[in-house]
Structures are given as structure tokens and as C-alpha cells.
Amino acid sequence: MSPRERFWRDRRVLVTGATGLVGSHLTRELVSLGCDVVALVRDWVPGSPLLSEEWAGAVTLVRGDVCDQAAMERILGEHEIASVVHLAAQTIVPIANRNPVSTFETNVAGTWRLLEAARRSPKVSEFVLASSDKAYGQAAVLPYTEETPLAGLYPYDASKSCADLIAQSYAATYGTPVAITRCGNFFGGGDLNWSRIVPGTIRSVLAGERPVIRSDGTLVRDYIYVGDAVEAYMTLTERLAENRALAGRAFNFSTEIPLSARALVDLVLARMGSDLEPIVLGEATHEIAEQYLDASRARAELGWAPRYGLEEGLDRTIAWYRERLAR
């Protein structure tokens, strides 16, 4: 048995946001390692792999909301949770701009309530929080390092800055064993948010329709394949268990290949063998022009590196949608 298998075997883990892209892939990997996974589900998402694939039968599903602190305390206590991976969030930037209060409730209040529940639970030994590159806001110097100040301005960005700082506060004040991930834009099979650029482009091409770019195509971002993100969350949890000095610290995870929205769409089109011309709407507002990360700390201190990278990740993602949408 490998060190990873020994660590996760029979470990009781709470995954919030488990019906989402990263949450469903992470949960599946944990199940494959013999982990005892409790998945928090707020809304029933029929197309989510967590709710539709055979392996999901090994997961304990709990209906609830991270904003319900009493429920969080019950879950952590009754299920004797050792590790928490907190992924639950409202993650769509346009939705955050239209609905800031619900975004702040979920992303900020949900974080402090789950952290407070963990503080009251003697069994919790690792807590990994999903922050974001958006927590940095707009910085004059790129790429972002972990020393870049958190200065989110727009609703989604500000919610991630707040949650990130709250986690650091719990670590510093109460010794809560929480560490923080800051990742770029996720992509991979199972993403059902069609407004996102990768699944939206793939679905359009498979339907023979021109893909749509919501922005003017010049916004530059990091993109990280879901398999590499899963490796990041698992690695950080394992290292946190080995070294409590990581509590309160944040780590960037990135393939370190910044791309404009148009360049990413063109890359997807090329890998699908399509000559369709994108429709550029130029409608995106309140978004930062350029954001990308330096992941050298995660490489040096955690031993993490992307296993798949950008192009292999896109090929795997395209293959997933070809199969599923063909059904």
C-alpha cells in the first residue's frame, strides 16, 4: 500500500461543494482510495457525476447548506470527520455581479460558519479551504505570488478575499489547522456550467454552432485541469497532516500558462479540428484584465506539479464531452 493509500484509507472526510466540477472529481478519487467520504449537497444537480455514476453509491450524501452552522456542527460531530475540504461556493462571476448578497452569504458567511464548526469539533485535524486567484484582485505585478496582497474589489473577488482572510484569522487566533488553495480557472469533464468558456466552446462545436466569447476575448487567465486540481487538494491535505506549521498558509496552484479567452477558444477549436469562427460579444463587465499565478511555492514546499497540463487536460475534457453529449 502506498503512503497515499495508507493516509486516505478509512479516513472520514467532508467534501462541501461535492456536486461541482472539482468536488465530484475529488470525491471519486477519495472513494477509489477507500476513503469514508461525506458529501454535503445543497441543490440536487442531476447531471453531476456525484449523483449519477456508480461509484457515488459509496458516498454518504448529506443535504444541507454551509450557512447552517448547527447543521455543520452536527455533520462534523456525528460523522466524526477528520479532514474537511471546503469547496462549496457561488463560483460564477456574472451571477455574483447580479446577486452579490447571496454570493457573500455562501462564500463568506458559509466559510466562517464551517470554520467555527470545525473549531468546536475535536476530531477535525485538517481543513483545506478553496480560495481563488480572484482573491488577489487586480495587482500591478504579475504573476501573483502568495505575497501579493488580497484586494478583491468586485463581488466574487471580494468574497474570496474575505473567506481567505477569515481562514488565516482562525489559524492565527485559534490554531485551526486550515490551509488555503488559490487556483486559476478550472476545466474538465463534468462541468455543467455552460457559460464557462471550455465546456461552452466544446458543446457549441459538437452541435456545429459557433462558440460564444462573453468578453472581448482579451481577458488573460490561468487554466488548470480538474485532475491537477484534485492532486493539489489531496497533496495539501496530506502535507498539512504531516506539518501543522502549514496552518494559515496559502498556496498557488497553476500550470503557469496564461492565455487570453480568445487564445483558449482557438486552442480548443484546433484540438477538435474545427474551423468555426467564435462570436465575440464583448459584454463582460467588472472583470480584471489579466490574472495569472506563480506556483513555485507549491512545487518547492509541497512537491506538487501538474500531472496533465493544459493540452492533455483539454484532450481529456473534449473526449469526456464527446462521449457524454453523444448519448
TrEMBL record:
Superkingdom as given in the UniProt entry? Bacteria
Q: Which Gene3D superfamilies match?
A: NAD(P)-binding Rossmann-like Domain, UDP-galactose 4-epimerase, domain 1
Tell me which residues make up the NAD-dependent epimerase/dehydratase domain.
Answer: 13-243
What InterPro entries does its record include? Epimerase_deHydtase, NAD(P)-bd_dom_sf
* UniProt pathway: Bacterial outer membrane biogenesis; LPS O-antigen biosynthesis
Give the family from UniProt: Belongs to the NAD(P)-dependent epimerase/dehydratase family.
Name of the protein described by the UniProt record: CDP-glucose 4,6-dehydratase
